[in-house]
Amino acid sequence: MTELVKNTEQFQTMGEDANLKRWRETTKSLLDAVDNLYCQPYSICVVPEELRKQNESAYEPKVVSIGPRFKGKRELQQMEEIKWRCMLCLLSRTKGDGTKILETCMREMLELDATVRACYGEEIKLNRYDLATIMVYDGCFLLELAISKEKDWSAVFPQQSVSVSVSDLGTKVGEMEAVLTDLTLLENQIPFFILDKLFQILFPGSNLSSSIEIMVLLLWQQQLPKRIYPAHVVELVHSTFLWMHDIPIRDASSVVVDVDDYSVIIKQVKLNRCAARLIAAGVTIRLHPGSDNSIMFRIHDFSVQFSYNNGVLLIPHLRITQTTEPKWRSFIAWEHHRNKSKNEEFGNSTEQDGIEYANVFTFLALLFNDLICCASDVQILKNKGIIKDELGMSNHEVVDFFGSVANGIDRGHVGSGYSNIIDALNTFSATNFVTRFPIIACHDLSRITEWIYGLQKFLRRGYNFAAALITLLTVVQTCYAVLAYHYPHEDDNKNLFNTTQIHAKIN
Q1: Which of 140, 178, 182, 224 is geometrically suited to a Cys-Cys bond with 87, CB 3.0 to 4.6 A?
Q2: Tens digits of per-residue pLDDT, 473-506?
Q3: Which stretches are transmembrane (predicted)?
């Protein structure tokens, strides 16, 4: 009996030692990953509920699933076969046995299990093997898209033997706008260091592992002047737009305010004047002259400039396409998450040590929403070439579009650089009452049509018309009953008098 107890205690000790050893190895690998900058814990986060509830479908992939969150959705299953074929193309570019190479990739992913899980902002309920399988397959899929996009990279890593039917599959998939949109959704990501690890295993000895960012960005035909260590594709593409337009990643200098005496301005973060009221105040709204062609987001230049001396406001050109909203929302969600994590680390501010994080997508969403209060403001911006709607929406629908994108945004994430321009626009005035009155009066009259549109929209929704009609009839009936009681008809008074006399005679 004593011997049995000793054996049991020995097995328990061995089990505890094994768990402790595994914990030690897991912790060490995670700390090494964080120290080497390629792992950013909780960077693949869940979109905040206040943003998601405005349009939940905008944050969900429509074609391809990347990572564990949307794996298994029925509408995304068709793309799984294509991902396998793309992985086959990628393996044909390697030297060696593809099966053994995949096994090596799988072993590496299993070793990185704790590090991968730490990158997600929610608990992953998949086991180690299922999660490692997703990392391998989705990582190989992304690498094949990146390599096949550029002929130079395809020449460096040529396909050895693959059927003609799938030889250019990666090129075709990489040109699909819907796929590129899904790849920039915040919840539809894998850690970026997975691509680095897979590339080193697939192409050992290659000195191009430091060019993974460049390869991936070719999918959006963008370039990055220096190497960064992105947490995922969303951060990589977001950073690219800032660099492309000379906006430092940690600086809000995209907003320029030209003003001699700025001390008189009280800082605000909400623009209290729409486009028509800005014009009435003497502001000249113009299209930013630096506009050029942009493939991905369709915003040609992120610089918003206002000269307080001459009253000129320069706004970037915005093209509204089928994929504008999901991309815009995804970048806003990423900016919110980044600011929130930094605020928790440094305090409630978007600025640490004099350095401010640029939230250009958040600011632009708020700016366009504040500039537009009715359909007439949309027409003003269209006439000036600032807004180009490729979806064929009405001006009223464009108002709803900007309101939906901006709804739920925390204005506290807007830094001082952006609040400066809002302050200047709210306080600028270069016209007198006589000049402003007719513009504002015409604008206010045009808002009547906005109220009518809102009423029609409300009545068309569900059973609102029937409910409104019943409510109206009920109110009318109630009012009639009250009036009839307090102000009876003359004939009714005579009948009441005659009835009273008859009762008196009978008695």
Answers
A1: 140
A2: 677 777 767 776 666 665 555 555 555 555 555 5
A3: 465-487
List the one residue out of 410, 33, 28 whose CA is nearest residue 231.
Answer: 33
Task: Evaluate whether residue 449 is within a structural domain.
Answer: no
Residue 135 pairs in a beta bridge with none
pTM: 0.77
Q: What are the distances in angstroms from CA 165 to CA 52, 236, 321?
A: 40, 32, 31
Question: Which of 219, 242, 265 is the C-terminal boundary of a domain?
Answer: 242
Note whether 218 and 258 are same-domain residues: no
Any alpha helices (H) in 150-228, and if so which ranges? 151-156, 164-167, 169-174, 177-183, 193-202, 212-217
What does the DSSP assignment read for 366-382?
A: HHHHHH-SSHHHHHHHH
Q: Find out whether 410 and 336 touch, Cβ atoms under 8 Å.
A: yes
Range 428-437, long-range pairs (CB < 8 A, 24+ positions): 428/281, 428/282, 428/283, 428/308, 428/311, 429/281, 429/282, 430/281, 430/282, 430/283, 430/311, 431/280, 431/281, 431/282, 435/280, 435/282, 436/280, 436/281
Number of domains in the chain: 3
Summary mean pLDDT of the chain: 77
First to last CA, the chain: 112
Q: Are residues 356 and 501 in the same domain?
A: no
Q: What is the pLDDT of residue 5?
A: 47
Q: 255: how many CB neighbours lie within 10 A of its CB? A: 25
Rounded Cα distance between 249 and 264, Å, is 30
Q: Which of 198, 221, 242 is the last residue of a domain?
A: 242
Decide: 258 and 309 in contact? Cβ < 8 Å.
yes
Q: How buried is residue 100: exposed, middle or buried, by Cβ count under 10 Å (0-12/13-18/19+)?
A: exposed
Contacts of the segment 27-32: beta carbons below 8 A, 24+ positions apart: 27/114, 29/111, 29/112, 29/114, 29/115, 30/114, 30/115, 30/118
50: number of CA atoms within 13 Å, CB side? 9
Between 439 and 391, the higher pLDDT residue:
391
- Which of 380, 290, 368 has the alpha carbon at shortest distance from 325? 368
At residue 313, the 3 state secondary structure works out as strand
Note the pLDDT of residue 346. 43
> What does the pLDDT look like over 189-243, one tens digit per residue?
999 999 999 999 999 877 766 678 888 887 887 777 667 788 899 998 888 777 6
Q: In degrees rounded to 5, what are phi and psi of residue 287?
A: -75, 135
- Dist CA 70 CA 38 (whole Å): 24
